[in-house]
Amino acid sequence: MAENGTRHCDVLVVGSGAGGLATAIVARKAGLEVLVVEKEPVFGGTTAYSGGILWIPGNHLAKARGIEDSREAARTYMRGEAGNHFDEARVEAFLENGPRMLEFFERETEVKFALADYPDYHPDRNGGVAIGRSVSALPYDARRLGPEMRRLRKPLETITFLGMMFNSAIADFIAIEGS
């Protein structure tokens, strides 16, 4: 910190939710100096409340389980769901980079994902699927954070089991690993 109380960084991230922390990790991995600021005394953003399910068409986890999907189907589904708000350039960027993002985080960090057995919101619509696009981060031993563990936002009690967030992706992982 400079004498006048200012800090210099290459990237300033406002908010410590999944999006903010993902941005910080990618920037740091690229060699940039990153500063994350958070208004709350805890970090984790609303991801601690939502369960952190990601919707990523064409992901490697679905492919590994033999689940068929295509960019064309995902694009068709998104066009139908978004209606007049469909933004082709953004959709194409998402369809191209969403799967790459999952692979990056599994390769470059300790985060691991599992396929969540959730359908699209409207799986019967054109391009919709019954399974394969939703993924969830697997449990992480927060004790590895040391004293920073106490600064994690607590999840909602309604989505926890024995103090851990619980969803179908975790149940599926436990079932697969246990068999």
Automatic annotation (TrEMBL):
Pfam families: FAD_binding_2 (PF00890). Its cofactor is FAD. It comes from the Bacteria. The chain crosses the membrane at residues 159-176. The keyword Transmembrane helix applies. Gene3D superfamilies: FAD/NAD(P)-binding domain. GO terms for molecular function: oxidoreductase activity. SUPFAM superfamilies: FAD/NAD(P)-binding domain. Residues 10-151 form the FAD-dependent oxidoreductase 2 FAD-binding domain. Keywords: FAD, Flavoprotein, Membrane, Oxidoreductase, Transmembrane, Transmembrane helix. This is FAD binding domain-containing protein.
